[in-house]
């Protein structure tokens, strides 16, 4: 029987790459994000390659959206085996200028969206001895002054991962988290352009400066994270449970 995976934030970047990879590996994929056109484009790409996908455009900041997403997945494919909580970009900036609204928005999607979706899907995951993967971020372990919201939210996701892993032992559900470092997405390209502008150099030189300042080996590709998630969810990855895996080119210096 084919597995069914829900992947949030799957209209672009890391989430899109994860959805494409899981579909290529044979899963039915339920895609969720706010941008309907991009979401449908990803679903069409999966179908064109012979896979099965349903696009469910929802705003997971809204409390009722998680249950609606789970209902759509069960209605379409009969159950849920995998939840990948990837949705949630948080605002960077100086701590003193970040507003209550910035903080509330950051937590509403990345943390509470993941909490609600995992809770709604848990009975279905338990029935199929499924798996949850949280896509957090290296800022959860190595916070920085421009990333106070994101670092805090990611740290909360990592703590949630450990707590849910204990429940997963009881219920037969695998729970892990991945901490990506810088990954070549549209957001990263904007960040790189800013480095280029600040130093008056082209993007190739800006990348060299960025790698040196961040003290990392390379910037990842969305497919790098997708490949890691696919391994975690494979039979070879079942030993991983409650694991927090840094995929960040060496950005995390702590134990």
Radius of gyration: 18 Å
- Order of SSEs, N→C? EHEHEHEHHEHEHHHE
Q: Which CATH top level class of the largest domain fits? A: Alpha Beta
Globular, elongated, flat, extended or rod-shaped: what is the shape? globular
| Alpha-carbon distance between the two ends | 40 Å
In words, what does this structure look like?
The chain is of the alpha/beta class. The protein folds into two domains: 4-183 and 221-247, Rossmann fold, CATH 3.40.50.720; 184-219, no CATH class. 50% of the residues lie in helices and 15% in strands. The protein has nine helices and seven strands, in the order E-H-E-H-E-H-E-H-H-E-H-E-H-H-H-E. The protein has helices spanning 13-24, 36-48, 65-77, 100-110, 112-128, 148-171, 186-199, 203-214, 222-233, and strands at 4-8, 28-33, 52-57, 82-85, 131-135, 174-180, 244-247. The chain has a seven-stranded parallel beta sheet with strand order 3-2-1-4-5-6-7, sandwiched between helices. Helix 1 (13-24) links the parallel strand 1 and strand 2. Helix 1 packs across helix 9 (222-233), helix 3 (65-77) runs parallel beside helix 5 and helix 4 runs parallel beside helix 6. The longest helix has 24 residues, at 148-171. It is globular and about 55 Å long. The termini are far apart. The model has no long low-confidence stretch (mean pLDDT 96).
């Amino acid at each position: 029987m084919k597995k069914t995976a829900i992947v949030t934030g799957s209209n672009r970047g890391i989430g899109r790459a994860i959805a494409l990879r899981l579909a290529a590996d044979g899963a039915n994929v339920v895609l969720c994000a706010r941008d309907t056109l991009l979401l449908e484009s990803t679903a069409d790409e999966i179908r064109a390659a012979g896979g099965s996908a349903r696009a469910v455009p929802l705003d997971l900041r809204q409390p009722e959206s998680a249950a609606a997403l789970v209902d759509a997945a069960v209605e379409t494919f009969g159950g849920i085996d995998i939840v990948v909580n990837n949705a949630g970009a948080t605002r960077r900036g100086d701590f003193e200028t970040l507003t209550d609204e910035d903080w509330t928005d950051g937590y509403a999607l990345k943390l509470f969206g993941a909490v609600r979706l995992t809770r709604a899907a848990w009975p279905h995951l338990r029935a199929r001895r499924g798996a949850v993967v949280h896509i957090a971020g290296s800022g959860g372990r190595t916070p920085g002054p421009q990333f106070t919201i994101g670092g805090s939210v990611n740290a909360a996701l990592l703590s949630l991962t450990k707590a849910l892993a204990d429940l997963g032992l009881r219920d037969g559900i695998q729970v892990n988290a991945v901490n990506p470092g810088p990954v070549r997405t549209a957001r990263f390209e904007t960040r790189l352009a800013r480095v280029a502008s600040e130093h008056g150099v082209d993007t190739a030189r800006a990348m060299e400066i960025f790698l040196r300042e961040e003290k990392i080996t390379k910037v990842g590709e969305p497919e790098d994270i997708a490949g890691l998630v696919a391994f975690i969810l494979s039979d070879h990855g079942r030993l991983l449970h409650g694991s927090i895996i840094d995929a960040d080119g060496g950005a995390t210096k702590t134990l």
